[in-house]
Amino acid sequence: MNTLQLVANLGFILFAKGGPLHITTQFIDGDVSFFWNGDPGVPYYVLRIGINQTNISWYRISGSQYTVKNALLYDSISINVRAPGDPSDNKLTYKVSKIESNVDNSVKISWTAPYFPRAGEYIIFHTNKVNRSIISVYSNDVTLDQIKYEYHSRPLTSTNISFEVKDITRDDGYYNGGTNTMAAWSGGGVVLIVHNKPSKPNLQGNINTLVGNSLELTCTSSSSTAPEYYARLHPLSPLSYTWYVNKTQLYGETDKTLRLRVSRNHKYNQYSCTARDKLESDRSDHVKINPMYTSDKLTISPRPSQNLYNKLLVKEGETIGPYTCTADCNPPCDIMWKYKDSTTGGFCDVASTGLLDSQIVNRSIALYRCIAQYSPDKDFKIIENIILVVLYTSDKLTISPRPSLNSYNKLLVKEGETIGPYTCTADCNPPCDIMWKYKDSTTGDFFDVASTGLLIGHIVNRSIALYRCIAQYSPDKDFKIIENIILDVHYLDEPQLVYNENSPIYTYEELQVQENTSLHLYCHVNSNPTPTIRLHRGGNANVIAETNSTNWLNHTIYSLQCSDSDEYTCTGESTGLSSKKKVFRINVNCDLRLNSKDTVELIKGFMVGSQRTVIIKIPVIAYPPPVTSRFTWVDPKGQMINGTNVALLKTHALYSFLITSVVLLPEVEHYGEYSVQYNGKSLTKIPITKRDDFLSESDRKSTFTIVTTSNDKTRTDMKANEKIKKNRKQEQKNYSLVLVWNLLFIWNYLSIGLSIILINIQLDGTAL
């Protein structure tokens, strides 16, 4: 037997640099624990440095112990311990000593002890699952537990400990020495790793395999290397395998699994295997493959009379069969018949033997299938089909998605909207020819829409009464079925207006009609369903006529008045549709006359020399608007008054105006009845009577402040000059009239709320 020797130097080396801590080690079940004599109640910081370790960092731990798992992965382990608040390093390096050997070999184990006891004994321990002493060394004698151990160190008091383990069996584990039992786990010892033959392989696989299928034979074995804490570190170390067929090695096959494609000749072969780690296992028991085979086809007799597509044509309701189905299998196959339901896709049993009795065919039967199953392998089966072509026609058409019809079985749709797409199908075999047509409600004729069952989206108009799906059967041209989608097209046109029987009214047209005549209005709204028609005046809230029972709205104004002048709107409304309207205007031509709903205002003006001005505001009704130049004033003597200024202001309505006049009365007796005329015809008479409240001298010389609007003119203060007035007396009078006229307009503008400027006027001498 070969002898392996490992010289283990000091099992641990302590490097203490300035620290008060004393560090010791223990090796237990493959793990190394470090202990120090510090206070276990405070945290310590440990720096672990391994040879194969790349990430080095401090660990904060509680207690006075730190354990490194799986120490056999390292050649040595170094740590540095620091106490809280103390920067001193306390270092220790633990050397991991291990030696490997095979069963039945011998091995020498050695290490250096820190000292040999002067009195007493030095005990060598073997620790695996239990701890036991194997050698006791005294200064003059050695005691061995078994004859398999031999102690070699001389003199006996030498600290270079060396001994031999002979005929290794299960001697794996940790070896160390010392003066007491605690030394069994203390650091500085040696781990003995023992390799044994792997376990005898167990050959597994499905030896009853169908010909042509793959077969996998698996050689199962396990490593016997010890101790356990070494073996668990190498779980993925694969064993190598050797395969044999009829005691002949298969070269190139070293995997755990042998894969074969089974043929009938494999029934003559025997297979076995061995496994190898450091040592080779015993050979497994041999296995023999039992190839299984079956027929590669089925035979149906009599052979069905099929067409070029290998299908059997049959009319719905006819009978087929009987047929017999056979298969060449060993052992015999189990044979049955099934048919396929074309509606569900599922198969239903027909016969549990190879005989298929006569069968009545319907459209739901897609085929009859003979199935042969092999009893040793339920996953194996052979099938043979008799595919049917069942000829039949449909008794109805299906349109999808189904149109949402109303209670009258009509599809309600707005004109301009799109219906569809719809798909029309018929259950025919061979397939029916399907097309779409639409019916024109104006002519009653049908027109092609689609030559297939797909009706793509179509924009609907009022002339389309329905869409029709038509299915025809190619074997029978006289066969035809139809399905209609009847439409109820909703639409709403713009109102059409006519007045006085045959005169059209256009949008925003202005009708010029005469006062005291009649006006007949007709509003027609073409719509489905019947619309609600309203005639509005001025705004939508002022409804003067309404109907919802016909497409015509009639309204008559029997005697037109100026007050009928306004904007009118005819609207058509229908539920679900946008309303339509037409706006027009009626202008009633009426002669000028006083507005009886208002009053005439007479305002005393100012003196211009010896003459007095009078301001008169007369409300009138007229259309078209009156012309200011046609207004005249006649004094009580029947004489027309010159220098009269007239202003025309529109009020709240098209036909309503305010006539404002500034009249300069004669210098002498200006009291009496004055007449206002238009086009020479009297409009109204105004009596002017004598009054005693003339303006005082101080009133005439006062300053007037007037608020008015001006966006494009700038008015400046005007002051009278006595020297100029003496030379321009007549001009002063004319200027005063113009000033009064301007004041009149300013006053009128104030009444309608314009923006503000300030005008200061001062008249000296004779004032208004």
Automatic annotation (TrEMBL):
CDD domains reported for this sequence: Ig (cd00096)
Principal place of residence: membrane
Name listed for the protein in its UniProt record: Uncharacterized protein LOC111117517 isoform X1
Topology in the lipid bilayer: Single-pass type I membrane protein
Regions annotated as coiled coil: none
Superkingdom classification of source: Eukaryota
Transmembrane regions listed in the UniProt entry: 735-759
Gene: LOC111117517
GO cellular component, one term: plasma membrane
UniProt KW keywords: Disulfide bond, Glycoprotein, Immunoglobulin domain, Membrane, Signal, Transmembrane, Transmembrane helix
Any one Gene Ontology molecular-function term assigned to this protein's record: cell adhesion molecule binding
Domain called Ig-like: residue spans: 198-290, 302-381, 401-480, 495-584
Signal peptide: 1-18
Organism listed in the record: Crassostrea virginica (Eastern oyster)
Gene Ontology BP term (one): cell-cell adhesion
